[in-house]
Amino acid sequence: MESEEGVVYNVVNLTKLFPIKSGFFASLFGKEKNVHAVNDVNFTIGEGEILGMVGESGCGKTTCGRCLVRLETPTEGHMYFGGKDIAGLKGRELKSFRRDVQMVFQDPYESLNPRFNVYTTVSEPLVVHGVGESAEERDDMVAKALEYAELKPPEEFMYRFPHELSGGQRQRVAIARTLVLRPRFIVADEPVSMLDVSIRAGIMNLMLSLRERYKIPFLFISHDVSVTRYMSHRIAVMYLGYIVELGDTESVIKDPLHPYTEALLSAVPVPDPAMKHGRVKIKGDLPSPIDMPPGCVFHPRCLYRKDICDKETPQFKEARPGHYALCHFAGELTIQRPDDEEIFEVGGCEYCKATIKKGMSYAKCDCNKLYHESCAGQLDECPICKKKLQVEE
Amino acid sequence: MVMLEVNNLKTYFRILKGTVYAVDGVTFHLDRGETMGLVGESGCGKTTTAFAITRLLPSNGEIVGGEIVFDGTLIGRADFPTELAEVLKEPLWLPETRALVERKLKKLSVPEDESSTIESMRHLEQESACVEDVSAILNDASLSEEEIKGELAAIVHDELSSFFAKRRRRRFDREVEEKMSDIRWSQISMIFQGAMNAFNPVYKVGDQIVEALLEHEDMTKDEAKERVLELFDMVGLDRTRVSGYPHEFSGGMRQRAIIAMSLACNPQLIIADEPTTALDVIMQDRILGEIRRLQRELHIAMMIITHDISVVAEVAETIGIMYAGKLFEFGDIVSIFEQSANPYTIGLTGAFPSIKGERKKLIAIPGSPPDLSEPPHGCRFHPRCKFAQEICRREEPASVEVAENHWSLCHFAREIYSGKLT
Fold first, then answer.
1. What does the pLDDT read at residue A358?
2. Which of A2, B102, B309, B365 is the 20 to 30 A CA-CA neighbour of B274?
3. Interface check B91 vs A, CB under 8 A
């Protein structure tokens, strides 16, 4: 269990609770409350693999990432990195572990020290860990790291300050800073969400090529499912501190097992106006991570809820090879996913305000207003432009 | 039927370093009941366009060219001396000045009736006198080019910087502002960026909407309260929430309340600036669905400003793609997505991942957007464009109508549209 062939990181029952400050009496009577940020999470990351982690804000994905680089100490559970449990490391051992794992943060405008130039920023990890014999050797390592991050030629960037760089270049500097120590594992926490679309693709391609070339495994955290799909081999979907689904990217995207994943995917907008897709409605809002719902955490919002769901906590089971879900009915549930084509919406009828779906016959008048066939029959002419209506299709 | 018409709008910001050409010649129109998406990267002038339309520009920003016509009424334009001052800075100032004066003479010679503009007749008279002065100087054959420029510069200085002129302009600005505040909210309402924080935290949400209603509509307090309840029903909020404070609302609920507020006075146009940016996907989807439903039921025109092209693809019928202060492509959304005629749009759609269809390699646009205080010469996209040629470096492209209701700002728009250039 501790170390499998080809597995870099093995996370077992990872739990992180944040205690809430409560009053003296409450603490006396043991009524202290916790924020359940990460609950009993299990996953592995293989060599050269990118694991994507998606979820809404407040679902615990960042906390999970921070635990993996040990910026947070987990409350419970084990994390085997290269066969060694690093969950409880302290002092010198922790420091040497941190040399192997690095993190890229969300906002390159905040994560770089404005008073450090690029050279100082990138060489700082070397200084902290005492890497490199001489100044020349360090210079060389910094130049190489900048080159890996596609900041070429490195001499041109080395003595610039963050304010002289664009957003994309800053994020490249942040990536160079993680690469300089030649880490064995990188956590990228929303590395592209603050960047503009035209620059975003460049950073994503850079990370993909780094993985390709140096086989560095990544944990890629993002709230954007489309971005995560592009980046990762496998996707973990988090909801309220639990991983509710884990599997191969295409398998999760095309054929989700968990009702939450299904709702999440159907809400993602598609950059194609011709593809109006079916929507799965879910009820209510995200419950508070302080008072967790009993049984399955998703049951208050689930469309397929049965009696067992609010009583028993489901198992994280492998419903299909390599595809896990935290649901009592994983794999058994026929997810009533409306077919994309079937519910293609043409538009709204001007007269009765109901939607016109593809395949229905409707009338379109010159002012681009639409009417159902039946409504058009009643109206005969368009009330707006006063022209006779012709039924098409 | 055209509801909002923006013609060659130019909005600049004056800063210590010089001028930021935030919006530089944007032309588009919006029909009644239509949804338009305005897409672009940060700092490309989307929000400035919206602020120019609602006349909410900060004090260092001004409209220096173009016109904004809303429902047949001129609600925004540059006044003549400001426009002239900008034209004089151009290398080809003489023909441009002539063209400007000709345009102005044509407009001002027709006596306009009160309802076609929000400006006072006195202001217009004042201005037409100034136009005639300039026209006289231009037609004076005895003057050399240098002298003409000198004279014009003197007029501009007089009109813009002298004590009396300044006082006069302040008065006109006040008059315009008064009229504009009648239009704002009751006819054009706006959902601001970061709507999550748009409510005052120390007042109840319902009361804030009541306040807006009392300010803009002729109704009693009880009527206004009744209307707020109606609005809450309309956007799908619980009626009991009217007496809640903003912090008791979740992000999605606050967004709904903001939408309710923008609908309060039955506007004909809503400008929504990044309405869903701070929301999670599921909430975003719900809000977009809500917006679409309301718009269909109430027949409101809508302008959605966002950086997310997929959001626009979900809700809009027309799309405008902005880059570096210019509208690079505008028109019917399906036409633009399926057969774009602009290299920037192609780059943008190629850089956007999707969860549908095959996983294809994304292609980044090299470089980064320009600094708008020193935009590149010629086409503003040429340093990043894969089709760029000599002409792109030299000349600014003009807007080309490649198909019905599809405009593109590119020297090679037709070639790209027809697929000759790939």
1. 55
2. B365
3. no
Which chain B residue is nearest to residue A232, measuring alpha carbons?
B359
Residue A213 lies in a domain: yes
Cβ(A61)–Cβ(A53) under 8 Å? Answer: yes
Note the pLDDT of residue B147: 86
Other C-beta atoms within 10 Å of B54: how many? Answer: 20
- Residue numbers of chain B with a pLDDT score lower than 50: none
Domain range for A349 is: 345-392
Tell me what pLDDT residue A385 has: 67
Considering only CB atoms, B364 lies closest to which of A57, A169, A202, namely A202
pLDDT (tens digit per residue) in A356-375: 665 567 777 666 667 777 77
pLDDT at A247 over 90: yes
CA A121/CA A171 separation, integer angstroms: 12
How confident is the model at residue B20, as a pLDDT? Answer: 92
Q: Which segments of B184-265 does DSSP mark as H helices, in order?
A: 205-216, 221-235, 251-263
Q: Do A379 and A302 share a structural domain? A: no
- Closest CA of chain A from B288, distance in Å: 10
Q: Do A254 and A386 fall within a single domain?
A: no
- Please name which of B147, B127, B121, B148 lies closest in space to residue B81, comparing C-alpha atoms: B127
Residues A349 and A262 grouped into a single domain: no
A229, A268, A269 ranked by CB distance to B359: nearest? A229
Over residues A20-56, the pLDDT tens digits come to 876 777 667 766 788 889 988 999 999 889 999 999 8
Give the chain B residue whose CA is nearest to the CA of A233: B359
Question: How confident is the model at residue B222, as a pLDDT?
Answer: 93
Please tell me the predicted confidence (pLDDT) of residue A106: 85
- DSSP conformation letters of B383-398: GG-TT--HHHHHS---
Same domain, A235 and A368: no
Is residue A163 situated within a structural domain? no
Q: Looking at residues A282-310, what average pLDDT do you find?
A: 83
Asked whether the beta carbons of A298 and A260 are under 8 A apart, the reply is yes
Which residue among A297, A317, A340 closes a domain?
A340
Residues 6+ apart with CB under 8 A from B362: A201, A204, A205, A230, B350, B351, B352, B353
Give CA–CA dist A224/A228, Å, rounded.
6
Interface test with B, best of A190, A272, A275, A277 (most B CBs within 10 A): A272
Answer whether A269 sits within 8 Å of B41, measured CB to CB.
Answer: no
**Best of B241, B281, B307, B338 to mutate (most A CBs within 10 Å, chain A):** B281
- Reduce the DSSP state of residue A10 to 3 states and report it: strand
Min Cα separation B37/chain A (Å): 12
Q: Tell me, what's the pLDDT at B323?
A: 93
What interface predicted TM-score (ipTM) does this complex get?
Answer: 0.83
pLDDT per residue as tens digits for the range B383-400: 999 889 999 999 889 999
| Cβ neighbours of B139 (radius 10 Å) | 10
Quick check: B250 and A285 CB within 8 A?
Answer: yes
CB contact under 8 A, A200 and B359: no
User: Among partner residues B297, B313, B366, which is closest to A353 by beta-carbon distance?
Assistant: B297
Q: Could you give the percent of chain A with pLDDT greater than 90?
A: 29
- The verdict on A253 and A328 lying in the same domain is yes
| Closest residue to B284, CB basis, from A199, A267, A270 | A267
Does residue B201 have a cis peptide bond before it, meaning omega lies within 30 degrees of 0?
Answer: no
Is B282 at the interface with chain A, CB within 8 A?
Answer: yes
* pLDDT tens per residue, range B146-201: 888 888 888 888 888 888 888 888 888 888 888 888 888 889 998 887 766 788 89
Contact across the interface for A273 and B334, Cβ inside 8 Å: yes
Domains of chain A: total: 2
